[in-house]
Amino acid sequence: MAETQQVDPKAERKAARLAQQISSFSKAHGGAEGQIAYLGERGARIVLVGEDGNWGDLVAPSFEIAEKAVEKSGITRHESFDGEFAAKVKTGRYEWSRMAGIQVGGPKND
Questions:
Q1: Confidence of residue 94 (pLDDT cuts 50, 70, 90)
Q2: Is residue 74 a contact partner of residue 23, using CB atoms and an 8 Å limit?
Q3: Which of 23-34 are b and which e, b meaning 16 or more Cβ less than 10 Å from the residue's Cβ?
Q4: What is the pLDDT of residues 56-93, one digit of tens each?
Q5: Cβ contacts of residue 65 below 8 Å, gap of 6+?
Q6: 70 with 48: CB under 8 angstroms?
Q7: CA-to-CA distance for 32 and 73, rounded, in angstroms?
Q8: Separation between Cα atoms, residue 3 and residue 63, nearest integer Å
């Protein structure tokens, strides 16, 4: 007897919504690539990098939903955020000031 797989309609809807958001990001930035990072009980983070260097992220309630969303969107998925993939990210003044602020105790309000 064939094993039937239960489909959670709520999870399917969430994956479809995330896939639509990923596709919109990709369209707005000349294409996109992504990576999924496990966040524990919080779910999974989908990091997106556009062909123009802009980046963004989405949070899915589970790693499985994140995988389905990325698959449905059709973007290239990377196993890690390093090398050529990470080098595509363009950072601006805001990101550099935030990163520096974190390293030296936070932003100053002078």
A1: confident
A2: yes
A3: bebbeebeebbb
A4: 999 999 999 999 999 999 999 999 988 889 899 988 77
A5: 11, 14, 15, 18, 43, 44
A6: no
A7: 10
A8: 23
* Global confidence as pTM: 0.79
Distance CA 19, CA 59 (A): 12
Looking from the CA of 39 toward its CB, the CA atoms found within 13 Å total 19
For residue 7, the model assigns a pLDDT of: 72
Q: What percent helix, strand, coil does the chain show, rounded to 5?
A: 45, 20, 35
Query: E strand or H helix at 80, and its extent?
Result: none
Maximal C-alpha separation, the chain: 71
> Considering just the CA atoms, what is the radius of gyration of the chain in Å?
17
Distance CA 12, CA 60 (A): 12
